[in-house]
Amino acid sequence: MSRKSQKPVILLHGALGCAADFIPLQAALNGKLPTVAIDLPGHGALAASNIEQFSVEDFAETLYRYSTEEEPLDIFGYSMGGYVALYFAAQYPERVRNLFTLGTKLKWTTDIGTREAARLNPEHILDKAPHFAVLLAQRHGTNYWTANMRRTAAMLQVLGEAPPLAEALFSRIQGRTCVARGSEDTMVTREEGIQAVRQMKRGVYLELPGQPHLLERCDIGALANAMSDFFSS
Taking each helix axis from N to C terminus, what angle separates 145-161 and 110-118, rounded to the nearest 10 degrees? Predict the structure, then answer.
């Protein structure tokens, strides 16, 4: 498929993130790969919407309206966005053509869920990291960022207790899938990525040298090149 006729790659943000997080990446991909970044329910421009719909399953259903069996999706998911995309691909394998994830935590336990959820305390953030609170208010709105954080914490707790993307579901994913991890990512392990792609029909593992977990600290040019190579091949 030529780049001119290629459908845009849908970009899915991470936990506490929003579509605007991808502005630098979209700039780096300009002329290489068409993209469209979307806000998941309860995030960014949709921070005030779908108050009761805040789970991996709900987020995956958001993708359904963008897809058809005749025109399956190309998706890039960062962190939580990658988990949502993989879950969607396992539930609707005929609706995903190509999928690229970065920094997605695939192995969840009760301890991991509890630990990650405990970090998301709005009062603690306001006291210890007020600059981060300002950033979250810019992303989701002054009146909504605390609710976003609390819902995210609850979702991570559920992920630890009953991961919706069970290990057995990886084999249902039909599309080409690249599971990527930055070599300096301290949240996601190399082993969990390799274990996942071994169960996929068309999965590959990619390690990006020197890249950390946080998207804003990544070498965006290197990521854009890797994505362009994958989706354009």
Answer: 170
The tally of CA atoms less than 13 A away on the side-chain side of residue 222 is: 16
pLDDT at 182: 98
Torsions phi, psi of 193, nearest 5?
A: -70, -45
Q: Is 78 helix (H, G, I), strand (E, B) or coil?
A: strand
How far is residue 142's CA from residue 205's CA, in Å, rounded to a whole number?
39
Count of CB atoms within 10 A of residue 219's CB? 15
For residues 150 and 72, the answer to whether their CB atoms sit within 8 Å is no
CATH topology classification for 9-106+164-232: Rossmann fold (3.40.50)
How far apart are alpha carbons 192 and 188 in whole angstroms? 8
What is the model's pLDDT at position 68?
83
DSSP assignments along 23-37, one per residue: HHHHHHHTTT--EEE
Whether 181 and 99 have beta carbons less than 8 Å apart is answered as no
- State which residues of the chain have pLDDT below 50: 1-4
